[in-house]
């Protein structure tokens, strides 16, 4: 469907609701920043010591503390931060000395590449499994899918990551090790998009592309297992609700095949709900890849946030929290918009 056709179906009432949502988004982000800022200031990590070291004299310590603005009241520090944020300045990161915005722009594509491959795999497997389980409710196939979903959703992802490294890298040698590339290929491809698979393909460096694929497959599959478990469970739940409706009985009485009943009727009426599930799961992968990135030494957003927390680098932490909040709110708004655009019932209810 063309974008013009999509936007032509958006009513003025929907646009007004969107403006109201933007106002609530601003309040939500402000509350999130205030809470994170307050927690950061009571953390037992001293950011000044992280810069000057434990052997610095008192005068040096106080000088750096004043330069960071930590000698001011908490309210003044937060007001100053909001003023800089309004100008697009997220501050400088202590870890690298670079602006936080540059650091995030450098590390975030690695996480997006990892999470995107994971959500594609998780959705491609989770949706058919959920439909299959719903169509065979109470049979062995249904129990198997529910067991897989339970294991995938409840088992800690870092345990899967460590077991994956042990089995597929250390024992079998099928997967790449830590990082995004073998060391012999490091630096051979210039970063254009930040997505290594795309950059290697654009440069025609297929050996680098193969190494990048080998390294990303295992962590992406582990993240995908967690996503697949949740998507399969929700798909099964949505499908069971639809299969109990009268129109399904009517379709079967008319002699439609079971495949047509499942995919053309039942799944068609729950696919919009799945948009919200997939969108929020994708946001969770972008934010929750911290443990997987730590285990695989993946140079992404999660590892950057973890290092910043350990150092008490609040500029980097605040910038990362702001990005995570924007991601979740943006994906939620997008899923709501798509829900109302493609489901006529919601538009009728709003009118």
Automatic annotation (TrEMBL):
One Pfam family per UniProt: BPD_transp_1
Keywords noted in UniProt: Cell membrane, Membrane, Transmembrane, Transmembrane helix, Transport
Transport as UniProt keyword: yes
Cellular component terms per the entry's GO annotation: plasma membrane
Keyword Aminoacyl-tRNA synthetase: no
Annotated ABC transmembrane type-1 domain residues: 108-339
Record Gene3D superfamilies: MetI-like
Membrane topology field: Multi-pass membrane protein
Molecular-function GO term, any one: dipeptide transmembrane transporter activity
InterPro entries attached to this UniProt entry: BPD_transp_1_N, MetI-like, MetI-like_sf
Transmembrane segments: 21-40, 114-135, 147-172, 212-232, 274-298, 318-342
Principal location: membrane
Family, as annotated: Belongs to the binding-protein-dependent transport system permease family.
Protein name (database record): ABC transporter permease
Organism: Ideonella livida
């Amino acid at each position: 469907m063309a974008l013009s056709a999509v936007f032509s179906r958006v009513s003025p009432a929907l646009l007004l609701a969107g403006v109201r949502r933007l106002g609530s988004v601003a309040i939500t982000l402000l509350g999130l920043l205030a809470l994170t800022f307050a927690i950061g200031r009571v953390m037992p990590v001293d950011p000044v010591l992280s810069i000057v070291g434990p052997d610095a004299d008192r005068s040096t310590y106080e000088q750096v503390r004043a330069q960071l603005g930590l000698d001011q009241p908490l309210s003044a520090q937060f007001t100053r931060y909001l003023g800089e944020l309004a100008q697009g300045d997220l501050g400088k990161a202590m870890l690298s000395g670079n602006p936080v915005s540059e650091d995030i722009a450098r590390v975030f594509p690695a996480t997006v590449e990892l999470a995107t491959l994971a959500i594609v795999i998780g959705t491609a497997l989770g949706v058919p499994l959920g439909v299959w389980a719903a169509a065979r409710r109470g049979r062995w196939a249904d129990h198997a899918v529910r067991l897989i979903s339970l294991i995938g959703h409840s088992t800690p992802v870092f345990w899967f990551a460590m077991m994956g490294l042990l089995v597929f890298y250390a024992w079998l040698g099928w997967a790449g090790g830590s990082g995004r590339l073998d060391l012999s290929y490091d630096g051979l491809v210039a970063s254009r998009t930040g997505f290594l698979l795309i950059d290697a393909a654009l440069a025609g460096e297929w050996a680098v592309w193969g190494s990048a694929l080998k390294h990303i497959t295992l962590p992406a599959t582990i993240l995908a297992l967690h996503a697949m478990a949740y998507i399969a469970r929700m798909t099964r739940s949505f499908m069971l609700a639809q299969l109990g409706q009268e129109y399904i009985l009517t379709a079967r009485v008319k002699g439609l095949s079971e495949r047509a009943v499942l995919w053309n009727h039942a799944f068609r009426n729950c696919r919009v709900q799945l948009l919200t599930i997939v969108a929020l799961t994708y946001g969770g992968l972008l934010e929750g890849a911290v443990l997987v990135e730590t285990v695989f030494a993946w140079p992404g957003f999660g590892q950057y946030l973890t290092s910043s927390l350990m150092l008490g680098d609040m500029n980097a932490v605040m910038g990362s929290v702001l990005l995570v909040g924007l991601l979740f709110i943006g994906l939620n708004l997008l899923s709501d918009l798509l829900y109302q655009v493609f489901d006529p019932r919601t538009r009728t209810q709003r009118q």
